[in-house]
Write a structure and sequence with these properties.
Number of strands: 32
Radius of gyration: 25 Å
Largest sheet: 8 strands, mixed
Shape: globular
Distance between the termini: 65 Å
Structural class: alpha/beta
Bound molecules: adenosine-5'-monophosphate-propyl ester
Number of helices: 19
């Protein structure tokens, strides 16, 4: 089968019909060809982008694992996302359609900005950052923002100046915010007075004030008046965005600064198993090349599409597939600030109908919450405009897959589960409606995209047999990969490239079926995914042990019907502390305060011992197995078997399976519920 690899960037014609289908074998043959002439294959894709200077070398692999893509090339991400469209036939095309959560009699508030509008506003924002705050190449601008258009506009403005940005999700606490901003060395922070969710105001500026109390790299704070609540404005540090913009000429223009392909575009922190969050540094050139390819292959994006990604810009999905991917393609991007089921459970479906969304990117957690409310809410709206859907963030259960397929877009819509992670920058494994669609099996991720080689290997790094669980690796560098971990290159090498030399270790379990489809099963380490959000158990445990009554803590993820996983804590108290329901709620509140609301444990259990190896490492795997009722497997390295019984008892006690309402340490139940 001959396939046109070409991805026309500007003369947008549908080169590949969305109905192009392939057998898995045909796809694999095509995929193999992309690897045969690799990395030139990626050079072809990169040639579609408007570079200021073409690269000298496609891939510099002289210092692995610090690979560099399109070396010598120069470009500016803001000019690719904004200027080229504003200067051409897309000037009056809607770039951003924003919908707010509140619904008045005449419907919700909707703001539409064309590419010309975005160009004007980005220039004014860049003028402010440059002339009032001295932002320039080499600087880092921090973001702690609600989902409003000013968020991407200021990100693009920073990038226009050649600066990099670092975004902290607005659900993180003061402590988490402060740690991340300081690690990235942000000098200016862009934030808002507050955000809106479920009719209430999230007081973002108060959290910022808390984060900046301790010594901080942040010297200036720009505050968007978004909800209009009164906030503390520190003289000499804080300024309202509208005041700053009022000083910019209405027709302010700021020339985009050319940067090198391998200059950093952003730093985004991810949670790992141990230690501080890792600041993943992404480049400009490779990242944009990957986004360009995936917007076309995965989303089959065309000029007439209305594209909606339900993620938050605070996570990598939003960086790549709300801001840079769709805007670089000149798409119309829908942005929504609020809860998908508010004020009624059909809010999401009403958005699809109202804006005639044609391409939808969402998450299994969102779908499970839609499902829980029943089919009628979805059926109440005409969602026939939807022609491509994908989900991301966690494995999708087949029921959720089938439900979505049945209830949205007349039952025929290609619908995949795209696998990738913060580290990969963009989608790596997916079905590809824009290139050639293999039959989709509910729950599968599909195949690696062209130019990316993935494998499932055993503990020795050898190919795993079909239908047998193994570890997911990427066997070659790819455009969009991290440059390094900020301030910690040796950790980058150690975490991702040391386990299987030459391959990137993703940290996920995966299996391939008899036809070669990849099925990603979930994390192989102690990272948990709560509503698709990635949390390191370490951060939650660190919060718990800050309580004066707590001696030790372990956190594991247990299955949750809607969120996928929920955090559950097991703590050993200090002598004299009272294990009661009050303390359990205090501990939950502490995690909420220290890490953020998304991390709040579902339950906290008190135990006298935790299962540990002889080298004193907590065996979270064992705790989790007990909590989910699975066999604990090999426990030969366990120091004390009694600790396992103890977890089992604490859990059974909670479920009311044991009479007596006491754990092994002789303590009462913690949740205050009757048995
Ligand atoms: O475990 C995998 C899971 O999410 C992890 C990456 O999380 P994060 O860096 O927050 O990025 C999420 C959005 C790109 C992975 O290691 N994951 C992501 N997508 C899928 C998935 N697991 C199964 N299927 C997916 N489609």
């Amino acid at each position: 089968m001959s396939v046109n690899w070409s991805l026309p960037f500007d003369e947008r014609v549908r080169t590949v019909s969305r109905s192009t289908t392939m057998t898995p074998r045909e796809y694999e043959a095509m995929h193999e060809r992309s690897l045969e002439n690799w990395p030139e294959f990626w050079e072809g894709v990169a040639s579609e982008l408007p570079w200021h200077r073409r690269w000298d070398k496609v891939l510099d692999d002289s210092a692995p694992p610090f690979y560099r893509w399109f070396v010598g090339g120069e470009l500016n991400a803001c000019s690719i996302c904004v200027d080229r469209h504003a200067a051409g036939h897309r000037a009056s095309k809607p770039a951003i359609i924003w919908e707010g959560e509140a619904v008045a009699d005449r419907g919700p508030t909707v703001r539409t900005m064309t590419y010309a509008d975005v160009h004007r506003e980005v220039n004014r924002a860049a003028w402010v950052l440059k002339h009032r705050y001295g932002v320039a190449k080499g600087d880092t601008v921090g973001f702690y923002m609600p989902m409003v258009p000013e968020f991407p506009i200021f990100m693009l403005a920073a990038v226009r100046l050649g600066a990099k940005f670092t975004v902290v999700f607005s659900g993180f606490s003061s402590d988490s915010l402060s740690e991340r901003l300081n690690d990235a060395g942000a000098k200016v922070l862009v934030t808002a007075d507050g955000g809106r969710r479920r009719d209430s105001v999230v007081r973002l500026k108060d959290i910022v004030d808390g984060a900046l109390q301790a010594s901080s790299s942040v010297k200036s704070v720009l505050v968007l008046k978004n909800v209009g609540n009164s906030v503390n404005m520190e003289t000499g540090r804080d300024e309202y965005i509208h005041d700053a913009l009022a000083r910019a000429p209405a027709d302010a223009t700021v020339e985009p600064v050319s940067v090198r392909s391998d200059d950093p575009l952003f730093i985004l922190h991810t949670s790992g198993t141990t230690g501080r969050p890792k600041g993943q540094v992404h480049d400009v050139g490779g990242y944009l090349v990957l986004l360009h390819a995936t917007m076309r292959w995965v989303f089959d994006l065309n000029d007439d599409d209305v594209y909606w990604c339900t993620a938050d810009i605070g996570w990598v999905t939003g960086h790549s597939y709300i801001v840079f991917g769709p805007l670089m393609e000149g798409a119309t991007v829908l942005m929504y600030e609020g809860a998908l089921d508010h004020p009624s459970p059909d809010r999401w479906a009403s958005i699809l109908e109202r804006h005639k969304v044609s391409v939808l990117y969402t998450s299994p957690t969102a779908i499970r919450s839609f499902m829980k409310n029943g089919d009628a809410w979805a059926k109440a709206h005409d969602t026939s405009s939807v022609r491509v859907m994908h989900s991301v963030g966690e494995p999708i259960n087949p029921e959720a897959f089938r439900w979505m397929r049945r209830n949205v877009g007349e039952g025929q819509v290609p619908f995949g589960s795209t696998w990738w992670m913060t580290e990969t920058g963009g989608i790596m494994i997916s079905v590809l409606p824009g290139l050639g669609l293999v039959p989709i099996k509910p729950g599968t991720n599909g195949f690696p995209i062209p130019g990316v080689e993935a494998a499932v290997v055993d503990e020795q790094g050898l190919p795993q047999k079909p239908f047998t669980r193994g570890l997911l690796v990427l066997k070659r560098p790819w455009p969009g990969m991290p440059l390094t971990i900020h301030n910690d290159p040796s950790r980058y090498k150690e975490v991702y490239w040391s386990r299987f030399p030459g391959s990137f270790f993703a940290g996920d379990y995966a299996v391939r079926d008899g036809e070669g489809y990849f099925w990603i099963l979930g994390r192989a380490d102690e990272v948990i995914k709560v509503s698709g959000h990635r949390l390191g158990t370490y951060e939650l445990e660190s919060a718990l042990v800050q309580h004066p009554s707590v001696a030790e803590a372990a956190v594991v993820g247990v299955p949750d019907e809607v969120k996928g996983e929920a955090p559950v804590g097991f703590v050993i108290l200090r002598v004299g502390a009272n294990a009661d329901a009050g303390l359990a709620s205090e501990l939950k509140a502490l995690v909420r305060e220290k890490v953020g609301p998304i991390a709040t444990p579902r339950e906290v259990f008190f135990v006298g011992k935790l299962p540990k190896t002889r080298s004193a490492k907590i065996m979270r795997r064992v705790i989790r197995a007990v909590a989910v009722g699975q066999s604990v497997g090999d426990v030969s390295t366990l120091e004390e078997e009694a600790s396992v019984d103890e977890i089992r008892r604490a859990y059974a006690d909670f479920r009311g399976e044991v009479s007596g309402a006491q754990d092994v340490a002789g303590r009462k139940r913690t949740d205050g519920r009757p048995l």
